[in-house]
Amino acid sequence: MTLSAQIAKQLRDVYVGKNWTWVDVKETLKDITWQQATTKVDSFNTIALLVFHMNYYVVAVTKVLQGGPLDSNDKYCFDCPPIQSEVDWKKLVDKTFTDAETLAQLIENLPESKLAETFSEEKYGTYYRNITGVIEHIHYHLGQIVLLKKLLVKK
């Protein structure tokens, strides 16, 4: 298995299971209602906002792998559209999984030599750094979602 294929598997595993931590996005989100996803707990971000935020960077990296510019901006990474129904919540979740699989396929087909190349601009480091950084970012916020879910279910 190529390094690119291994990284793509690692991305898929954080979304659908069998990763090293045995915590994944699919299992974590499967029984969260739109009301829970939008409920604010203390000063923490909502689950919906965290899901949008994680996916914002998945989309940004995807665009670059598709040959486009890196045109994301951190000031927009929490601009989640309003979630006012189960349909809105399901749309966000479905988009998240679709976007993740698109990125995984692009990574899988990436020549290994590309991983060492500069990602967009020198200041962002390599493709490897940005792709694995997105996976680390998802694990980080997934942990927050797990904790928020526990707090919400406790209420």
Mean pLDDT: 97
Question: Could you say what the CATH architecture is?
Answer: Up-down Bundle
Task: Please provide the count of β strands.
Answer: 0
* Beta fraction: under 5%
CATH fold category name: Four Helix Bundle (Hemerythrin (Met), subunit A)
Total of domains: 1
End-to-end distance = 46 Å
What class do helices, strands and sheet pairing give?
A: mainly alpha
What proportion of the residues is helical, as a percent range?
55-70%
Q: What is the CATH C level class, in words?
A: Mainly Alpha
Query: How large, in whole angstroms, is the Cα Rg?
Result: 16 Å
Instruction: List the helices and strands in order.
Output: HHHHHH
> Quick one: overall form?
globular
Helices, strands, pairings?
Blueprint: H1 3-16, H2 25-29, H3 34-37, H4 47-65, H5 86-108, H6 127-154
Helix pairs in contact: 1-5, 1-6, 4-5, 4-6
Tell me about this structure.
It is a single chain. The chain is an all-alpha fold and 155 residues long. The protein has a single domain (3-154), classed as Four Helix Bundle (Hemerythrin (Met), subunit A) (Up-down Bundle), CATH 1.20.120. The protein has helices at 3-16, 25-29, 34-37, 47-65, 86-108, 127-154.
Name some characteristics of this structure.
Four Helix Bundle (Hemerythrin (Met), subunit A)
Quick take:
It is built from six helices and no strands. Helix 1 runs parallel beside helix 6. The mean pLDDT is 97.
